[in-house]
Amino acid sequence: MKKESQRILLIESLLALIAIFTFFIIKGFNMLVYLAILLIPLGLCLWLFGFHQREERASKDVLLTIVIWIIVYYLITYITGYFSGFLKNGYSMTVKGILTNIFTQSMFIIIMETIRVSLAKKCKYFKIGLFIAAVVFSAIEIVTKFSLGQVSSRLDFLDTLFTVILPVISKNALLTYLGYMTSVGNNITYRLLMELPTYIVPIIPNLGDYLSNTILTVIPMILIYYLSRAYFSKKEKIKDSRRDLKKRKLASVIGICLVLILSVLVVLVSGVGRYLALTIGSGSMTGTINKGDVVVLDKKDKKVSEGDIIAFRKEGVILVHRVIDIQNIHGVRYYHTKGDYNKNEDNWLVEVKDIVGKYKLRLRFIGWPTVKLNEWILGGD
Predict the structure, then answer these.
(1) Whole-prediction pTM value?
(2) Domains defined along the chain, listed by start
(3) Burial of 36 (0-12, 13-18, 19+ CB in 10 A)
(4) Distance between terminal CA atoms of the chain?
């Protein structure tokens, strides 16, 4: 086993060196060059371990589950896009461009997943190798999307963390887990279905970076939980017992509930639908709405009366204050506002076009992590 562990570490070290080499040395990233370089660890891996052909018993069931989840993913994103709008795909939509992108990306996926599964299958008695594999494969993918020049402040770092690093780590955790538990076909299928449509479909949902990357980060984690409960709770041994059936049903219910909760939270935070969730970062409404609370706003309710609490934009910042007076000036409706905790009223008037939404609900304290994170960001600029 020691010799096999050393072989695993050898290939993982080689992959890490490729990631470092690409990140610091290669200028003007070229996918074909990258593919040629990756053939080296692929050949070494097949020479040392051979090609894994044994089909795991659960592979077909897992494949069906993966396909269903991916279909649900596309339904959710494109239905959401119906409300948020669509963007033109930034990749080349010419026949040559589409074929080139499909070929290079498919080859990248096949090479990466063949190496991954070959390594994962040999980690039965070397579990730390699985963790290292997930980290290394994440690094290899991250260097194709990210450079040091993109990070010049804490805000840039967090933006890169949420839009690039976390989704990649989450995806590679799932793929490494799948590679260990099932077969290479499932890994390749998952990646082809999730990644190739990007190069083919001319329009994509305008979900925004936060919403789209939150979905791409959380879905693999939910899938890992679901698959571990539904198929792998007995270490690859699947017994058709009532107890196992109950576990699968429970895992299905929990998975669906998590997806629903996630969908509601993401929709609220992103403001795609009628309602918007907003974290309060100041103490101007203390007593009524405290710093660190989250308020839910109705973006469609424009019937504002004196005494209502509204959220409005002022110099690029969203404020939540109470309406204390309404004025009509030359036929235009203006609102005079004041924070309940402030001694003085606001020295400006709010127009209807500046109103983001009308206050409907307060959720106490749950916004504190966001407040602290925002203070950390501002403190670093």
Answers:
(1) 0.68
(2) 2-270 (no CATH), 275-380 (2.10.109.10)
(3) exposed
(4) 51
